[in-house]
Amino acid sequence: MFVKVCSPVLSLVVALVLATVLAATAQPAAAQATGATTKPADATTGRVFEMRKYYTLPGRLEALNARFRNHTTKLFEKHGMQNIGYWMPTEGPEAGRVLVYILAHPSLEAKAAAWKAFGSDPEWKKARDASEADGKIVEKIESTTLRATDYSAIK
Q: What pLDDT score was predicted for residue 43?
């Protein structure tokens, strides 16, 4: 499933993810040379991606970036989430206030378990509370779960 693209930044994010991860997920040259193909993605099982969009309160984007840079990305990995990429819109009304990122999870069940563990992690709570000592950072979060198509370069 894919969300309705409501801003050019989402199209850019998808294009950047494909370009960034293609090298890491491409089939080995030997498999391509022998004509081996990959099995199409199953519509109900397997790896899923999560595109998240954080809208910050005015003037709080740098505080969010610092929290992700210094704490959150490492905690995601600790709980089995794969960091794919992080972006900020460069133009339009979202510039200067939005962080967009994509995570990968082995399955929908793994995604749910990872977020549950992350949310109750004392390290996360400490980092969140410390980063919000000067006030709340995030105004709104949007999350969309995506599954690769059978023709996607990234699965």
A: 55
Q: Residue 7's pLDDT is what?
A: 54
Tokens at 49, concatenated: 């991606």
Q: What is the pLDDT of residue 1?
A: 39
Q: Is 25 exposed, middle or buried (0-12, 13-18, 19+ CB in 10 A)?
A: middle
Q: Can you list the residues of the chain whose pLDDT is less than 70? A: 1-44
CA–CA separation, 112 and 119 (whole Å): 11
Which pTM value belongs to this model? 0.73
3-state DSSP assignment of residue 42: coil
Coil, strand or helix at 131: helix
For residue 46, give the nearest of 116, 105, 117 by alpha carbon. 105
CB 110 within 8 A of CB 68: no
Query: Among 3.30.565.10, 3.30.70.100, 3.30.360.10, 3.40.50.2000, what is the CATH number of 11-24+46-146?
Result: 3.30.70.100
| β-sheet with 98-105: strand ranges across | 82-87, 98-105, 48-56, 138-146
pLDDT at residue 35, as a whole number: 44
